[in-house]
TrEMBL record, chain A:
Pfam family, one: ATP-synt_C
Residue spans crossing the bilayer: 20-40, 52-77
Domain of life: Bacteria
Membrane topology: Multi-pass membrane protein
Name of this chain's protein: ATP synthase subunit c
Entries under InterPro entries matching the protein: ATP_synth_csu_bac/chlpt, ATP_synth_F0_csu, ATP_synth_F0_csu_DDCD_BS, ATP_synth_F0_csu_sf, ATPase_proteolipid_c-like_dom, F/V-ATP_Csub_sf
Native source organism of the sequence: Agrococcus baldri
GO (cellular component) term, any one: plasma membrane
Molecular-function GO terms, alphabetical: lipid binding; proton-transporting ATP synthase activity, rotational mechanism
The organism's taxonomic lineage, starting at the top: Bacteria, Bacillati, Actinomycetota, Actinomycetes, Micrococcales
Residues the record marks as site: Reversibly protonated during proton transport: 64
Keywords, in A-Z order: ATP synthesis, Cell membrane, CF(0), Hydrogen ion transport, Ion transport, Lipid-binding, Membrane, Transmembrane, Transmembrane helix, Transport
Stored Gene3D superfamilies: F1F0 ATP synthase subunit C
Domain V-ATPase proteolipid subunit C-like: 19-77
Family, as annotated: Belongs to the ATPase C chain family.
TrEMBL record, chain B:
Membrane-spanning residues: 45-67, 106-129, 135-154, 175-195, 201-223, 230-247, 253-272
Matches recorded under NCBIfam families: ATP_synt_6_or_A
Alphabetical keyword list: ATP synthesis, Cell membrane, CF(0), Hydrogen ion transport, Ion transport, Membrane, Transmembrane, Transmembrane helix, Transport
Gene3D superfamilies attached to this UniProt entry: ATP synthase, F0 complex, subunit A (1.20.120.220)
Name listed for the protein in its UniProt record: ATP synthase subunit a
Organism: Agrococcus baldri
Subcellular location, record wording: Cell membrane; Membrane
Listed InterPro entries: ATP_synth_F0_asu, ATP_synth_F0_asu_bact/mt, F0_ATP_A_sf
Superkingdom of origin: Bacteria
Family: Belongs to the ATPase A chain family.
Biological classification of the source: Bacteria, Bacillati, Actinomycetota, Actinomycetes, Micrococcales
A Pfam family hit: ATP-synt_A
GO cellular component: plasma membrane; proton-transporting ATP synthase complex
Amino acid sequence: MDNATTILAEINGNIGTVGYGLAAIGPAIGVGIVVGKTIEGVARQPELQGRLTVLMFIGIAFTEALAFIGIATFFFMV
Amino acid sequence: MTLLASAANEPEPFHPPSLADFFPQVFLFAEPTIPWFEDDSPIFGINRIMLVRFIAAIALILIFVLGTRKMRLIPTRGQSLIEMGLGFVRDGIAYDLLGEKDGKRFLPLLTTIFFMVLAMNLTGVIPFLNIAGTSVIGVPLVLAIVSYLAFIYAGVKKHPGAFFRNSLAPAGVPWFLYIIVTPLEFISTFLLRPITLTLRLMMNLLVGHLMLVLFFAATHFFLFSLGGGFIALGAGTLVFGFAFTVFELLVCVLQAYVFAILTAVYIQLALAEEH
């Protein structure tokens, strides 16, 4: 009985996974803001769409880099 | 999961994807080795990923050489595809960000970066190759260093002597703030730029490969090891696997575009009059 409960309660894995989950929150919000604002901008001025799309991808690239640094830390810190 | 697996008849255990997938066995040039580096790792060792990189490079060269050998004023279908790709890099990336004069100078570099990243990314979704040449740090690191040297070269050539002062100590800041601003500018410009270029490309492709392997390994496990009611789940993971393959195709093109456009942005910032 006691043995069974210990086995049921066992979780194995690495706490670094949780760390990556936390690291993904910020970039997710950031990318959402970047894309949302771009859509707002295009809705206001559709003729600027090409220029705004380029800026959007640059903004996304800078923001999501944080998430990928988050993945990488797991490999060289653990 | 272990309980369910033991209920089935002679179950094959689930094989989750791991980082070992990215370090396959060296099958050619196992000598010479570096004694002090990572347990005698071979210097010129050719493994599956290196082979995939060679295939991608040869395919890229063949496409461009054969496709542009007989150029016509009215292009054939193949020639117009190549023209579309080259024109996209020229108009969409180089001329758009750098202007016609500077764009022309850096066009060969940007074109090479774009098509090299694209070719090495696409091997990740091509059947039987199945791993991206950029999913191990070598290629992204080399390209990031090339991009790093390119923007420093552009800046030093345009503003000899003033480039490092401009980028480390931007004008219009009260003097006491330089204590904070200069280290921050140094870290963000000269350390984080190459690191983020490398990691963005590599991690995108690495994670993409892990996701695809996870879906297809799960499909195999559900269909052949568990069977029964799990076949429905297996069909679900199979559909998701194909959906993610299409998504990976998008990521491949997007990462090539982002790498080229960030190089162009860094060059543009280095060329700008005032920082």
